[in-house]
Amino acid sequence: MTRKVRSTVARHRYVRGVTGLRGKLWDALHYMQCRPLGEDEQAADRILFTSRTEGLSRQEARALILEHAGRRVAYHRLILSPGESVEDMRRWTRLVLADLSRHLHQDLHWVAVVHRNTAHPHVHVLVAGRGERLSGEGRAAAVLLRPDEYEVLRESGDHHGRDLARAECSLDEAIRTELDREMTGLLRTLADALADEGIQTHKHLLGQGERRGPPGRDATRGR
């Protein structure tokens, strides 16, 4: 029976540059960090991160997106979920968005938060509506996400998801092998120690028996 392969999910909508943008951004960031936690999540897991940094405050994240907000599109909201089971979701997100950046020939400005409160872990991303061109001109240009970009996100997500899942599986296997080796050595050492202790105890009991006399002898006889 073949395993059904799940592909990367990429959902997108954008927010126009309208009045009240600061409040909308704050609400979006609050949602990203303060959604109910999953059973295996901690509040510390909901940190805001970018392509280069981690642990941004909400104020810092909002300032980053506002600084690079576009006129027509202030920012994009993405939900990305890998098809493979990936442990390091932040690394996966950075790899996928780096591919999108190269596809668009733009340096993107984004913040993200990982969620593990559903059956499929996913990441919420806010991408600013303007990015600098990678050609060296340094000139800002609008960031446009269309069907072609969705396909880039899915293909990149699948590719990096497979690579990371394979690497993480190999690492887990190496750790298990090393732990098994250490446990075997520990058990052998413990067995040797117990054997030595057993010999010592046996000799000790023999010595006591010789001093007390043969088993069954009444110590009170003859009094």
Structure description:
- The chain is an alpha+beta fold and 223 residues long.
- The protein has one domain: BirA Bifunctional Protein, domain 2 (2-Layer Sandwich).
- It is built from four helices and nine strands; from the N terminus they run E-H-E-E-H-E-H-E-E-E-E-E-H.
- The strands form three sheets. It has a four-stranded antiparallel sheet, sandwiched between helices. A three-stranded antiparallel sheet has the order 5-8-9.
- Strand 8 and strand 9 form a beta hairpin.
- Helix 1 packs across helix 2 and helix 3 runs antiparallel to helix 4.
- 25% of the residues are buried.
- The C terminus is likely disordered.
Give a quick precis of the structure.
With 223 residues, the protein is α+β, with helices and mostly antiparallel strands. It has a single domain (9-169), classed as BirA Bifunctional Protein, domain 2 (2-Layer Sandwich). The protein contains 4 helices and 9 strands; from the N terminus they run βαββαβαβββββα.
